[in-house]
TrEMBL record:
Residues 302-779 form the USP domain. CDD domains: Peptidase_C19B (cd02658), UBA1_spUBP14_like (cd14385), UBA2_UBP5 (cd14386). It comes from Triangularia verruculosa. It holds the Pfam family UCH. This is Ubiquitin carboxyl-terminal hydrolase. The active site is at 311 (nucleophile), 735 (proton acceptor). Residues 585-626, 647-687 form the UBA domain. The lineage of its organism: Eukaryota, Fungi, Dikarya, Ascomycota, Pezizomycotina. Its EC number is 3.4.19.12. Residues 565-575 have a biased composition (Acidic residues). Belongs to the peptidase C19 family. InterPro entries: Papain-like_cys_pep_sf (IPR038765), Peptidase_C19 (IPR050164), Peptidase_C19_UCH (IPR001394), UBA (IPR015940), UBA-like_sf (IPR009060), Ubiquitinyl_hydrolase (IPR016652), UBP13_Znf-UBP_var (IPR041432), USP (IPR028889).
Length: 779
């Protein structure tokens, strides 16, 4: 039977800017590897599952797009008597998808119910061919993100090469100063060949290329083993000390008789080595007696595939979706969403997709691509879900999270919480981050007149600065740090300190006492342990053991009692209606020292205020630890209120207008983000359909809607539920994993989530000591 839709569909090939979702469903993790395969819409290239959930059919019906390409992928069975060959030294050959899988495609019309249309029909054949050749969504995003913002430089653009000559092949075989035969860099100016610097991963180097540059002033070199026939290569400018791009590489190599089309890549690029280094940070997957830990499967025990450097995302997502509020908000039983125009670009849809993937157990099964043998564990690990669409949405418009570079897991948590908080929640569904929110209350008291000022601030996490005290080094080993307890860190956070302020009530310059306590407690308390030391003016992560018990503990002693009847408040400024706040006077000597180091005055004052106005060193350490804070350049404010949410700061509004972001939308963006310009830009980007109109109930919400976050009820007992751990000398490198307390019948055990690997662990005490982010549940 002929299908009338083929001739009338007006199909067109996907353009380079189109996303082709031909790996997994945009609304769940069913994929082309399932028996029924995946239906890719031939009109808009949405991917929909064909199994029991019928997301392809729902898309077809709601959009009026009847024609789909069904793609099914099955693993080829390859009989090998010997292990596969190792990578050749002469060329890097990658196993292609065609080598590993059988791909079956069928064109279908979902409206007519025809399951096998003619793929060779001129109306559909070119579209089918283009869909299969197009980069998948995840690969497209990966390529885009890995394209570091490398540029050329003046030293490459103005490069004057020595007269042309033919460099004989035998002279390209080893460094001109030593016998190293790999990691060789050719000076593009004179043709000298020298070895590079020693690289991670065991790649040798004696820095003879760098020495040559320093001796001659020749700045630009290319790594021979990285050159591809397509013209890509590692090009480095020693003068700039940066990796660069050379758009004239072919001509520059030809000057030395090297023909680009004849080159073959034989070594890993700098980027590939960077990825490998991040993946080298491994957490033990064996017991004390060397046995492999047994993989775990089931609901709540699903791993996430590493997308290159996405372990920071995987570890945070696993901990968030262990929180009951997140499970109830996005998990099974939540009312179905109304029709979404583009599911892959909708945060609500992608959070539901990740919840279903992690919690349902539907995808928690051994990797069928792994063949059990004497060389592999008895039970393979999971393949892991690929969270490409969620990662894209989280990173959209963000300078760091949109890249494939390793990131700070705690910064990602803060960013994701903001996105969820600001997103539009379907009617009647709560904001799950509310379970993490609480209020801190600060008390200031003048040492002279004893008048007080209370101010409060709603938060979703706290930082604890871990005390650093080195222990004596033993037998030439690196010095270790003295262990501290979590209670010591919380005591430091809530301790009374003296700050140098001028009292606006009595004009005394004698200073104030300042103390911060909890006004309310959350259901889930998130703590970020800052373990940073400044070495040679560079912040370096150090391993300080923080002792945290498995048993529950009380935080009752950290609850603020609030203003007492016998305490007199600082007077109100009747003219402005604002609080008469003490004036902060920064330590002049420390301020001068910090400014002399090049720090802006606003940041210096903020750092001195945050560290008790004590000295430049403490303030400098605070600055290094808070460089990326979104409000780092906002002047010190001692008031508890941020002003009217409805009034936009004219200066901030002008900044948005200078970027072409103006009108009611800009005003609303600033109001929605408490005047934070950076967040306002993100809000505008993620709310393009919002016309800026403010609903009446938004401007005058009933008092009941302004309920204070958290609860002040006692007892306030908390127990450690999950941790994010990190290995590496920097939070922007290394490797992140999550340990989560899980129920197995009547027993409770810690489970390690190491990307796609999910295993039960016997002892987590050591990892608890070196955790980076802690999640405590109220019990």
């Amino acid at each position: 039977m002929a299908c009338p839709h083929v001739s009338s569909a007006n199909l067109s090939k996907p353009t380079p800017s189109d996303s082709v979702y031909r790996e997994d469903c945009t609304q769940c993790f069913d994929s082309i590897d399932d028996p029924a395969g995946l239906d890719v819409c031939l009109k808009c290239f949405n991917g929909g599952c064909v199994g029991d959930r019928q997301h392809a059919k729902l898309h077809s019906t709601s959009r009026g797009h009847p024609l789909v390409l069904n793609i099914r992928r099955t693993r080829k069975i390859i009989e090998r008597d010997e292990p596969p060959l190792k990578m050749s030294k002469l060329a890097i050959a990658a196993e292609t998808e065609a080598d590993r899988y059988e791909i079956n495609t069928t064109v279908k019309c979902l409206e007519c119910g025809i399951g096998d249309l003619d793929k060779e029909d001129p109306a559909v054949a070119p579209i089918v061919d283009s869909v299969m050749k197009a980069n998948t969504f995840s690969r497209k995003e990966e390529v885009k993100a890995w394209e570091q913002e490398m540029t050329s430089c003046e030293h490459i653009l103005t490069l004057q090469q020595d007269p042309p000559k033919q460099i004989e092949s035998q002279d390209l075989g080893h460094c001109s100063k030593c016998d190293l035969k790999e990691n060789l860099w050719l000076c593009l100016q004179c043709g000298a060949l020298g070895c590079g610097r020693a690289q991670f991963g065991g790649v040798g180097g004696n820095s003879h290329a760098l020495a040559h540059s320093q001796e001659t002033g020749h700045g630009v070199a290319v790594k021979l083993g990285s050159i591809t026939p397509e013209g890509t290569a590692d090009v480095y400018c020693y003068t700039c000390d940066e990796e660069r791009v050379d758009d004239s590489l072919g001509a520059h190599l030809a000057n030395w008789g090297i023909i680009l089309s004849e080159r073959q890549k034989t070594e890993k690029s700098l980027t590939e080595m960077q990825i490998e280094q991040n993946l080298r940070w491994e957490f033990s997957m064996t017991t004390e007696d060397g046995k492999e830990l047994t993989p775990q499967f089931g609901p709540g025990l699903t791993g996430l595939k590493n997308l290159g450097n996405s372990c920071y995302l995987a570890s945070i997502v696993q901990c968030l979706f262990d929180i009951p509020a997140f499970q109830q908000r996005y998990g099974v039983g939540v009312e179905a969403l109304p029709d979404v125009l583009d599911p892959a670009q909708d945060l609500e849809t992608q959070l539901r997709k990740i919840a279903d993937g992690l919690l349902s157990g539907r995808y928690s099964k051994p990797d069928s691509d792994v063949t059990v043998s004497e060389h592999s564990p008895e039970v393979p690990h999971q393949k892991g879900l690929q969270p490409s669409m969620l990662k894209h949405l989280i990173g959209r418009g963000h300078a760091e999270f949109s890249t494939m570079r390793q990131q700070d897991a705690f910064e990602l948590l803060q960013h994701l919480v903001k996105l969820i908080t600001r997103s539009k929640h379907p009617s009647g569904l709560p904001d799950p981050t509310q379970s993490m929110r609480f209020v801190l209350e600060q008390r200031l008291q003048c040492l002279n007149c004893k008048k007080v000022r209370y101010s409060s601030n709603e938060q979703d996490s706290i930082f604890i600065d871990v005390p650093l005290e080195k222990l004596p080094a033993e037998d030439g080993e690196e010095p270790k740090y003295k262990p501290v307890t979590l209670k010591e860190c919380l005591d430091n956070l809530t301790a009374t300190e003296i700050v140098e302020l001028t009292c606006a009530a009595c004009s005394s310059k004698g200073g104030f006492t300042k103390r911060t306590l909890f006004k309310t407690f959350p259901n889930v308390l998130v703590i970020n342990a800052r373990k940073m030391a400044v070495v040679n003016w560079v912040p370096v992560k150090v391993d300080v053991p923080v002792i945290v018990d498995d048993a529950s503990f009380a935080l009752d002693s950290y609850l603020s009692k609030g203003q007492q009847p016998d305490e007199e408040s600082l007077p109100e400024d009747e003219g402005a209606g604002a609080s008469n706040v003490p004036a902060f006077v920064p330590n002049a000597e420390a301020l001068a020292m910090l400014e002399g180091m090049g720090f802006p005055t606003v940041r210096c004052e903020k750092a001195l205020h945050a560290t008790g106005n004590a000295d430049a060193n403490s303030a400098m350490e605070w600055l290094f630890a808070h460089m990326d804070d979104p409000d780092i350049d906002v002047p010190v404010s001692l008031g508890g209120d941020s002003g009217s949410a409805g009034a936009a700061d004219p200066e901030k509004l002008a900044m948005l207008e200078s970027m072409g972001l103006s009108g009611p939308r800009a005003v609303k963006a600033l109001r929605e983000t408490n005047g934070d310009v950076e967040r306002a830009i993100e809000w505008l980007f993620s709310h393009q359909d919002d016309d800026g109109a403010v609903e009446e109930e938004e401007t005058a919400a009933p008092a009941g809607d302004n309920k204070e976050a958290g609860s002040s009820e006692l007892p306030a007992n908390f127990q450690l539920q999950s941790i994010v751990c990190h290995k590496g000398t920097s939070i922007h490198a290394g490797h992140y994993v999550a340990f989560i307390r899980k129920k197995f019948g009547d027993e409770t055990s810690w489970v390690l989530f190491n990307d796609e690997k999910v295993v039960k662990v016997e002892d987590v005490e050591e990892m608890k000591k070196f955790a980076y982010v802690y999640f405590f549940k109220r019990v």
